[in-house]
Amino acid sequence: MFTGIIEGLGTIIEIFPQGQGKRFAFNTDFVLEQTKIGDSISISGVCLTVVKIHGKRFQVDVSPETLARTTFGRAKIGDRVNLERALQLSGRIDGHLVSGHIDGTGTIKQRQNKGNAVIVSIAVPESISRYIIKKGSVAVDGISLTINTCDRGGFDVSIIPHTVKLTTMGLNRVGDPVNIETDMIGKYVERFVTEIQHSDKEDKTGRSIDMQFLAKTGFI
């Protein structure tokens, strides 16, 4: 689990084929103190496991599913990435709860300066936009952001100078793909409501929600 508060940047330095998947090697701009093999790390929003580490360099394995669903399928040596190590429950949650499980990708459609901020417009498919609400949270390449406006075709976010300076948002250009993870709460609510509707159609007894129903629908 992560917060969407980026610790720093890294660079892809090697890409190795590994069956249908790939292994990526990164060089970080900061020391990965206390990070060890087996730890989770968010790389541009994607939760991956460290399989090799030495100093500021580490490697991860990327599965075919992750290559197909995220920007890693188009990544190349020299690309810059956002990095965040896993959340420590003893710390503050400054962003929002981010799982690192990407819903899909979006495309940057527009960048516009407004005061001291940069307004970024991102196009996403409706399968993603259905979970996005005005003033809700979204993770873009692992960055926790607040949604300004949204519609079925995409959403706008406001990027402050600090975020522009410390993340890939200062490097991204119009047309670039980005990883999108919507707020997990919306997906759970949809699943819950869908199961209730399905249950109502099969069960005409008017049974209320109880422990048996929650267990049957996978919530406990």
**Major sheet:** 6 strands, antiparallel, barrel
Could you please say which CATH topology of the domain at 8-85 applies here? Elongation Factor Tu (Ef-tu), domain 3
The secondary-structure class comes to alpha+beta
Principal-axes geometry comes out as globular
What sequence of helices (H) and strands (E) makes up the elements?
EEEEEHEEEHEEEHEHH
Quaternary structure: single chain
CATH class of the domain at 8-85, anyone?
Answer: Mainly Beta
Kindly state the mean pLDDT as a whole number?
A: 91
> Unreliable segments (pLDDT under 50, ≥5 consecutive)?
none
The name of the CATH architecture of the domain at 8-85 is Beta Barrel
Can you list the strand order of the major beta sheet?
1-2-5-4-3-6
Q: Strand share of the residues?
A: 35-45%
Notable traits:
single chain; 220 residues; alpha+beta; Elongation Factor Tu (Ef-tu), domain 3; six-stranded antiparallel β-barrel; 5 helices
What does this structure look like?
By secondary structure, this protein is of the alpha+beta class. The strands form two sheets. A six-stranded antiparallel beta barrel has the order 1-2-5-4-3-6. Among the domains are: about 10-85, Elongation Factor Tu (Ef-tu), domain 3 (Beta Barrel); about 185-215. The chain contains five helices and twelve strands. The two termini are about 20 Å apart.
